[in-house]
Task: structure prediction
Amino acid sequence: MTETAFDVQGQIAQLWIYPVKSCAGIAVQQAVLTRHGLQWDRHWMVVDPQGEFLTQRSHPRMALIRPEIAEEHLLLHFPGQEPLQVPLQAGGGLRRARVWKDTVQAWDLGEWSEAARQWLSRALQTDCALVRFDPAQARQANEHWAGDDDAPVHFADGYPLLVLSDAAVEDLNQRLVQAGEAVVDVRRFRPNIVIAGVQAHDEDLVEHLQVQELPGVRLRPCKPCTRCPIPDIDPETGVPGTAVGDAMRAYRQDPRMDGAITFGMNAVVLGVDAEDGRAPVLAVGQTLAGDLQFA
Result:
């Protein structure tokens, strides 16, 4: 199939993983792609004593926790504290953990759990702990949007991937400047894949995105990403504002979501068979192509 056979064609400009749900992301040049999304994405989560998940929505200081994936360890950094180091495969007993309406059993990190609890509780100024996703647990994306596609997820809000065009952020920044506000970067929106070379919000309309360098591997944008207050939290300071939400509210009310504000698309992964041992790798610079669909 030639390059001109597609309505939309762009390149992966950025890849991001968020090892600990709602903490800072890590920009990577490549990442193993699984049906759960990118390797290590939302693999850990911060929970309160009852197992309820914590996010920047209620704890904006989480934006300042900076994860790092070392050879065999997860490192967490926070201003004024020594780094926390936990083995990537640390797992002790199972405990209840809840993400929105989903309750699963998660690893409590065993002998490292108390050190993690103390470190996180000091950073976030509330009693909390770190848990790791147990791959044996079954958690699936909402079938209303994922349809018949097999779309397992770890601790993401609901879907394996979040896809966003860089032109969408550029368009928003033009509106912010016109309103006398400072520009923002893509970190505010926590995407996994940022696409260059397409029109703003083409991701809203594309039926599938084929990864040209990985025959058979496709991403299917399936649900508009509704936006909470997190895009208004400065990732450098953890301080909330209102400018980004106000700007999006003026033009991103989405009839597909009953008028909620949307920005970016949740996506499921197709063509990756975990049973045959393949480990496709997404990389910055790869080409994504697809056809537009109009309701």
Summary: Residues 14 and 194 are 5 Å apart (CA to CA). The helical segments are 113-124, 143-146, 166-178, 243-249. The chain has a mean pLDDT of 94. The radius of gyration is 19 Å.
